[in-house]
Structure formats: C-alpha cells, structure tokens
C-alpha cells in the first residue's frame, strides 16, 4: 500500500483525498494547519454575515470524514527532502514531526497579494482567503471601532468583502485602478452595469485610483488610506483584494521547478515523478492560448483533483482545460460566464461582441463570436441563470452565433425570462446584425 500525503485540505486536496480513500492501494494522509474539515471559501462572507454557521460551510458531512480511512493531520509543512521522500511539519503545539511518502500532492492554494505599502503591517488591514483572515476582519470591523472601510482592489473577492463590511453599516469605498469595476476582465459595458449595481447598494467607488500608503495616527492601528493623488480616505479597516499568489514559499529550497506556481506537466506532475501539484498553486507548462498557466478558481481546482484521482486510480490520464466557466454574485446581481468573452482592452478585431441590457440595468447578456466565421465563443450573463451543459454543447460543436441566439431559451433556468425578455433580446440582435 502506497503512502500518499496531500498538503492542503481545500477543494483540490479534499476532493483527491476522498476519491483515493476508497482504494485499497493507497493510505491517504491529509495535512492542513487551517481547519479540521474542508470548508467552502466562497461561504466565508455568509459566515461573517451570520447567514451560515461554521458547520454549514462544510460541503461534506463530518461523519464522512470520521468514517473514511483518511488520516487528517492538523499541521504546517515546513520542509521537503525529495531525495529521502520525507517531509517535516509542526503540529498545533509546535512539535516537529517527520513523515515518509511514496506520492506527495501539493494543494496549498493561494495567499492574498500585498504590495510594499508604508504601514502595511498595522492592525486593521487584511485580505480575505483563510479562516484566520475572517477572524482578523471580525475583530477589525466591530461596529464600536469601525465606521469607515476601504477595499483596495475590486474583482470577485473585493466585492464580497465590500458587501460584508457594508452589511454592518460601515461606510465602504472600493478603490480600483481601472476606469470601471473589473474592466480588466469584463467588457466595458458589462463593467459599467456591475459598477452601477454596486453603487446602487450604497458602496462608493474610486476609479482610476491607486493606494500609495496606509495611514496610522498611533503607529499601531489603521486610521486611513492615502491615494497616489494625495487624497486621504478615513478608514479603520482596509481590505486588500488585488489578487492572490500561489502559496509555495516553503518550497524555495526543494528543487521543484517554480515559476509563478509549481510547474506541472499534462499529468499534473512536477519535475519530481513522485510529486504532483493541483489547484491554485499549480502552473501548467502547456496551456491554451486564451487561458492562463495558473488559474485560481474553485472549478479548476476541483477538475484538477478529479483528473489526478483518475490518473492515480486508473492509469495515464492527462488534464485538459475545459471551456472556461465561472460564477459569482455582485451583491444580489448574479454573474455567469462560459467560454471566451474578452475585456474591451484585450479584445481583438477577430472577436465581435453583442451587448444587451434591460432598461433598468438589472439583467444583461453579452455574446462573443468570431468575426470571420461567426462561431460562438462565449457569453456573460447578469441577473440571468443559464445552464452550463447547454453552453458546453454549443462550444464543443462550434455553433454559429445565429443558432445560439435562436435557441437561447433552451439554456434558461428561469422560463419567465423567455416570456419577459427573450423577444426583446432576439429583436435587438437581429436589428443590429441585419
């Protein structure tokens, strides 16, 4: 029986551990210093807002873990000796341990990215990724001490954190470098739709602005945020949401090939044949031209874990990037994306886009297609739920944009959308393409 050690109990590590635990060929050890049970990181905001209990953030019943053969270890890995196939970790009491492995899987996820701002270490500043981050945010945003908050950076984590602190009556401002919210990812018209929605919920946005320093009146606690323009914003809490970086610091002297993340081949294998990497910390050596080598997304992490499970249980199985998919919420505005929809800054002439928004701007669809052969490339939706499997079929079949428009009602979860908006949407598309 082979000894498998998995570092990290997020969606990637936990999915792999549960899959392998059913096999008599592997004894599975799952190491994490963050929590005893796998929880959903996307549920942290609901835990903060009191909508969920800690146990309700856990996708699997605790009995499933207790009844499995997985040895769960609460500890932090501090060193790796590949030649000896051993790793060293410290437990919660600080006691050091050594363990020998046959197969090692690194699924350590990401860490919030910080810049070298003055006063970045004073109390009142935090990212949002781990449970420990949530504990810090809880203490920094107590209503008795926090009246103003600044969120540095937008995107999906930034808007979550803004909603969290705003829900407690805290005057909240988001500072972003882009001209519109998340316009580095979304087409401008979509970014404007989202921005208007966020502002309608009472959150302020400072666009085309950057932070130059954090301010502290006493040298220990945050008192404000200074922008490069010289403007100062009062704040007792600052959330830093300018992206994440793969959590690979403990591997600096390991001999593994590191770049932005841990470099892996198509089998998610590192330059050491007995070591694999999956999830946010993995960097693909070969990837699609319209994708990234490191993709810190829940769906990607799970797919990598499923692929590696099959590779270890059934034999040679390569990881292939499927059509891009993601979903989120901007306050109560639901967002889904399938396939390729480029931002306005990155869109090439070969990619055409059609934007349709309702008059009140509560719902919207952006379709992307090839100017050359009118092949459907992707879709963004706002306030409209669509079925992933239908878009997978259209993307796999390289359907033309006219077919997608004509059959779009097949993809709707909500039949009321077809009755209320579909004819308007189809008429607008035909009118703009006749």
Please give a structural write-up.
The protein is α/β, with parallel strands linked by helices. The strands form six sheets. Strands 5-4-3-2-1-6-18 form a seven-stranded mixed beta sheet, covered by helices on one side. The chain has a five-stranded parallel beta sheet with strand order 8-15-9-10-11. Strands 20-21-24-23-22 form a five-stranded antiparallel beta sheet, with helices on both faces. A hairpin with a 4-residue loop joins strand 13 (224-227) and strand 14. The chain has three domains: 2-110 and 245-314, FAD/NAD(P)-binding domain (3-Layer(bba) Sandwich); 114-242, 3-Layer(bba) Sandwich (FAD/NAD(P)-binding domain); 325-432, Enolase-like, domain 1. 39% of the residues are buried. The chain contains ten helices and 24 strands.
Draw up the topology in text.
Elements: E1 2-7, H1 11-20, E2 26-32, H2 44-48, H3 62-67, E3 71-81, E4 86-91, E5 96-100, E6 103-106, E7 110-112, E8 125-126, H4 131-140, E9 148-152, H5 155-166, E10 171-175, H6 188-200, E11 204-206, E12 211-215, E13 224-227, E14 232-234, E15 237-240, E16 244-246, E17 262-264, E18 275-277, E19 282-284, H7 298-314, E20 325-330, E21 333-339, E22 351-357, E23 364-370, E24 376-382, H8 388-396, H9 401-406, H10 415-432
Parallel strand pairs: 1-2, 1-6, 2-3, 6-18, 8-15, 9-10, 9-15, 10-11, 17-19
Antiparallel strand pairs: 3-4, 4-5, 7-16, 12-13, 13-14, 20-21, 21-24, 22-23, 23-24
Helix pairs in contact: 1-7
């Amino acid at each position: 029986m082979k000894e498998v050690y998995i570092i990290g109990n997020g969606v990637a590590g936990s999915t792999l551990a549960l899959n392998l635990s059913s096999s008599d060929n592997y004894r599975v050890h799952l190491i994490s210093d963050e929590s005893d049970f796998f929880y959903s990181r996307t549920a942290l905001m609901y835990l903060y807002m009191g909508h969920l209990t800690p146990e309700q953030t856990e996708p699997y019943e605790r009995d499933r873990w207790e009844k499995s053969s997985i040895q769960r270890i609460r500890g932090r890995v501090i060193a790796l000796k590949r030649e000896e196939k051993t790793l060293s970790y410290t437990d919660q009491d600080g006691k050091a341990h050594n363990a020998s492995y046959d197969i090692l899987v690194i699924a350590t996820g990401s860490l919030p990215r910080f810049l070298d701002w003055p006063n970045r270490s004073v109390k009142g500043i935090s990212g949002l990724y781990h449970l420990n981050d949530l504990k810090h945010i809880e203490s920094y945003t107590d209503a008795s001490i926090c009246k103003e908050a600044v969120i540095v950076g937008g995107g999906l984590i930034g808007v979550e954190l803004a909603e969290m602190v705003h829900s407690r009556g805290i005057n909240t401002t988001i500072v972003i470098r882009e001209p519109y919210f998340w316009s580095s990812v979304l087409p401008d018209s979509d970014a404007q739709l989202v921005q208007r929605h966020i502002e309608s919920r009472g959150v302020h946005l400072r666009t085309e602005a950057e932070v130059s320093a954090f301010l502290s009146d006493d040298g220990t606690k945050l008192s404000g945020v200074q922008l490069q323009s010289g403007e100062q914003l009062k704040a007792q809490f600052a959330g830093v949401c300018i992206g994440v970086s793969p959590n690979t610091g403990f591997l600096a002297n390991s001999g593994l090939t590191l770049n932005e993340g841990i470099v892996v081949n198509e089998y998610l294998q590192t330059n050491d044949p007995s070591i694999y990497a999956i999830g946010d910390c993995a960097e693909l050596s070969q990837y699609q031209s319209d994708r990234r080598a490191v993709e810190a997304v829940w769906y990607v992490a799970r797919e990598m874990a499923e692929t590696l499970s099959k590779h270890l249980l059934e034999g040679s199985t390569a990881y292939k990037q499927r059509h891009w998919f993601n979903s989120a919420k901007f306050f109560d505005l639901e967002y889904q994306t399938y396939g390729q929809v480029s931002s306005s800054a990155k869109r090439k002439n070969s990619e055409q886009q059609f934007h349709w928004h309702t008059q009140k701007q509560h719902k919207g669809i952006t379709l992307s297609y090839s100017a050359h052969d009118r092949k459907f490339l992707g879709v963004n939706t706002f306030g409209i739920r669509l079925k992933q499997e239908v878009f997978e079929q259209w993307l796999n079949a390289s359907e033309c944009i006219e077919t997608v428009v004509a059959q779009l009602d097949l993809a709707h979860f909500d039949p009321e959308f077809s009755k209320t908006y579909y004819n308007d949407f189809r008429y607008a598309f035909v009118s703009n393409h006749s």
